[in-house]
Write a structure and sequence with these properties.
The chain has 405 residues and is of the alpha/beta class. The protein has helices at 3-14, 45-49, 56-69, 77-85, 89-97, 99-102, 116-119, 140-154, 161-179, 191-194, 205-220, 230-247, 273-278, 294-303, 314-317, 320-333, 349-372, 378-396; strands at 17-22, 104-110, 135-139, 184-189, 251-253, 284-286, 307-311, 339-341. It is globular. This is CBM1 domain-containing protein.
């Protein structure tokens, strides 16, 4: 390894990081509640449990994980799953989540993932794994569902413009309350999953009222409210965009890569272009590398000052070569002062470890190639690493942190 590459390698592998998008870990009592294959894939059912072990993502992850549990063992995926069950849970979390293992200084957790309240640890519990306090990302659709549940339960709802205005007022008040909370650093929308990213800029009053009536009927029949009604969901997102812009707290959008619950043809961030234009004071964070629409995301990040691109979740879901290609696509056009790293870690401590290790390795391999080929200096490459791992998130979310180098 050349001297210049070694310096770059050291920074890639050891510089402290801010994980700008992740989710809580499972409680010990629920450590085996979900198939561990979810560590490797967004697939569901047999496509997850039977097919995910045959991916390059799994073949790469097994030796990386095994090395942490038993450096001398050569494990299969099935052997690893058995071995981890024999490790006390606090020890398992410590091995994979401790700052010495991940070099992560601060976690920003979206704690609105389904099942979090019942199965997962509180966001503050995660402070033990980083030197800076954990911060929250508020999922707006979950807040809206809670408000509607309360409104429908309190009285017989007459769905009209007045009811809609009451709902808007309550939602705006709740989101403003979150924005005023020092522990909350941003918002998140899962519109991509629910109705797609083609969010209308203007109100469709009749359509929104019809959606509200449908949701009310579901509630009245004893069903669980799950907001997947386009006019209503778009109404909710616009409220969140307004609050986000006024409060200066960014809003993250799930884009691209997800499970089969989303419509892939409506998951491209290019659909967000009208609302990006309509809310210029709102800072949009495009999550998950927008894979496989990474170039579209890079374009938006380049031409709009209020768009940022997160390159996360693809570690470890995508092969090593694919990860390098994704980073290359991010760097084709996106300004490096607006690229953010995350793990999208969730449920299992291993997801945070792999998300850190593989992202750092991919950054080094891509940037060291650019340095060798004379496309950037070593100094510039080191600056890119420090920015995407730490300083860009620190600035965007106004964290006020100093890297604990």
């Amino acid at each position: 390894m050349a001297h210049s590459e070694k310096n770059l390698h050291d920074v890639c592998m050891s510089y402290p990081a801010i994980d700008n998008h992740a989710h809580p870990l499972l409680k010990e009592a629920h450590r085996e509640r979900f198939p561990l294959e979810g560590l490797l894939s967004e697939a569901q059912d047999s496509a997850l449990t039977e097919d995910a072990p045959y991916t390059l993502a799994c073949m790469r992850a097994v030796p990386q994980l095994s090395k942490v549990l038993d450096p001398e063992a050569e494990m299969t995926w099935e052997a690893y799953k058995i071995a981890r069950t024999k490790v006390p849970y606090d020890d398992l979390c410590r091995r994979f989540m401790h700052q010495d293992a991940t070099k992560t200084q601060c976690l920003l957790l979206d704690d609105g993932l389904g099942g979090v309240d019942e199965f997962a640890e509180d966001y503050k519990w995660h402070d033990q794994f980083a030197s800076s306090p954990t911060r929250r990302i508020v999922r707006v659709e979950i807040v809206a569902e809670g408000i509607l549940n309360s409104m429908f339960a309190s009285s017989e709802a007459n769905i009209n413009a007045q009811f809609l205005e009451q709902f808007r007022s309550k939602l705006e008040e709740s989101l403003n309350g979150s924005a005023a909370d020092a522990a909350v650093v941003g918002f998140k929308s899962i519109a991509c999953y629910r109705t797609g990213l083609d969010i209308a800029v203007s109100e469709d009053l009749d359509g929104t009222l019809r959606c509200l009536s449908t949701v009310r009927d579901v509630h009245a029949a004893g069903g669980k409210i799950r907001l997947a009604h386009k006019a209503l969901n778009d109404h909710i997102v616009r409220i969140a965009l307004k609050v986000s812009g006024q409060s200066g707290k960014p809003i993250q959008f799930h884009t691209g890569l997800g499970d089969n619950d989303l419509a892939l043809n409506r998951a491209s961030p290019s659909h967000l272009q009208p609302v990006i234009k309509a809310f210029p004071e709102t800072q949009f964070v495009l999550l998950h590398s927008s894979y496989p629409f990474t170039r579209e995301a890079g374009y938006l990040t380049a031409v709009y000052p209020n768009v940022w691109l997160d390159f996360g979740e693809v570690f470890p879901f995508v092969s090593a070569a694919g990860q390098r290609a994704i980073i290359q696509q991010v760097l084709e056009l996106a300004p490096t002062n607006k690229a953010l790293w995350s793990t999208d870690g969730h449920w299992w401590p291993e997801s945070f470890y792999l998300g850190s290790l593989q992202a750092r390795e991919a950054l080094w391999r891509v940037l060291s190639t650019y340095v060798r080929e004379g496309e950037m200096t070593e100094k510039d490459a080191i600056g890119v690493v420090k920015n995407v791992l730490f300083h860009n998130s620190n600035r965007l979310y106004k964290l006020g942190l100093v890297p604990t180098v």
